Amino acid sequence: MTTPGRRSTLETYRDVIGLTGPLLPVVSFLGRLPTATIQFGSVLLVARTSDSLAAAGLTGGALALGQVSCGPLVGRLADRHGQRTVVLLFASANALAVTALVAGALAGLNTPVLALLGAGAGATVPLIGPLARARLVALARRAAVPDATVGAALSFESTLDEISFVLGPALVGVASVLAHPAYALGGAAVLVAVCGTGFALHPTATATRPGTANGPGSAHGSATEDGSATEGGSATEHGPGSAHGLATEGAPGPVGGHPPATRARAVRGAGDGRPGMPRSVHALRAALALQGAMFGACQAGITALTGQLGQEDQAGLVYAAMGVMSAVAGLSMAAVPARFGLRARRRAATAAAFALSLPLLGTHTLTGLYAVVTVLGVAYAPHLVTVFGLTERVVPPSRLAEAMAYATSAIVAGQALAVAVCGRLADARGPGAAFAVASTAAGLAAVLALTARPAADAGDLASTPHARVPTDDRAGTAG
């Protein structure tokens, strides 16, 4: 029975769906599924058609590089021009680029051309996941929902990402076994064209339209924590003269302590009139890059160990088990009490990831691998949800889509680099070496979480028109 005054997790998720309607989550999930499909699918496709693992690796690497390089541009354009036009353009371009990659591989084009086509497929990814997250936050701000609903929204979006990155490679693997990887990539091109268009044309796309995206309170729709308007779309904290999002996790003190001229420069930030990004986002992106490195190193280690055991076909299932557990943990984040703030959640998640990754170093059997990796999945999504929540907390509302795109690109970059390095390391020194890299990345993420200072004092959020998740352990339940 639910305690009076508190909402159950199910009721909170009903509120999340109520912000979007039932169609948008379906369309956004199917629209982001190709992103998880083309990375793995491009490697299998080129490996099958060229009979060269080197060519496959170069193509997959070029695809990841294209996404990392151009992902933030997609977010920036969406912040400036609205999601509808940008997603329509990139979804169409991505469908054509993926189709060109499939045609080029089937035609037996040489490796440099395939790498170029792979880079084009990566550069045109419409990043529906980050944009859906930014859209949902904008809808939450507009509705002035409680903080618990925003936390559930971020958990929900992260869970959709987790499921897509488990299901995508699995579908590619099934298509490869039953027929040909080209079918999986062809399906990805159709999905991104149809569902990307559906995501762009959904009525909620106007929630992030420039000038109206962020709710009441200013020229750009943002408001201060105490309800007063701010200029340029950034929000202020509770104290006089302090700029929202400008106190950094690594800064010596609150922005309110800087001279007025310094604060003004910080708020103006970009020379084009947009508010600047706070320095704290760099630490958050580093944390996500380390988590991506954990993903990549685990993937390389799992592939190496299952191959060593003569069970290569189990690699995808082992990775899927970790992803499913991570998704369950992500959905469960909505039940975490608001008094357990984001700083504490981040520290707990990174410490758990480090501790739970250590048994991988002594794992030598398939059964043990399933057990250790499945338990490890418990720590992944909570860290993702928390860091995305902190990102939403500190960045100017008018640059939220860009910030989410950078965050996603950081994960992709960390994962791609770790896969490339740990694959060779595992070949030379065994799967334990790859798992050691995963534990090291987890340890560094834990150190970063412990040494980072709070981005802002959350204080009393009950009166704020922004739907924000508390960052400080002392913050009480809002709303």
Describe the structure.
With 479 residues, the chain is mainly α. It is built from 15 helices and no strands. The protein is globular. Residues 1-5, 212-268 and 455-479 have low confidence and may be disordered.
CATH architectural group of the largest domain: Up-down Bundle
| Contiguous uncertain segments of 5+ residues | 1-5, 212-268, 455-479
- N-to-C SSE string, H for helix and E for strand: HHHHHHHHHHHHHHH
**N-end to C-end Cα span:** 21 Å
The gross shape turns out to be globular
Q: Quick one: CATH superfamily of the largest domain?
A: MFS general substrate transporter like domains
Number of helices: 15
Q: Count the strands?
A: 0
Give me the secondary-structure topology.
Layout: H1 9-20, H2 23-50, H3 53-81, H4 83-106, H5 111-123, H6 128-143, H7 147-178, H8 181-201, H9 260-268, H10 280-308, H11 315-332, H12 342-357, H13 366-394, H14 400-429, H15 431-451
Helix pairs in contact: 1-7, 2-3, 2-4, 2-5, 2-7, 2-8, 3-4, 3-5, 3-14, 4-5, 4-8, 6-7, 6-14, 7-8, 7-11, 7-13, 10-11, 10-13, 10-14, 10-15, 11-13, 12-13, 12-15, 14-15
Provide a compact summary of the structure.
It contains 15 helices and no strands. The protein has 479 residues and is mainly alpha-helical.
Defining traits:
single chain, about 475 residues, mainly alpha, Growth Hormone, Chain: A, 2 domains, disordered C terminus
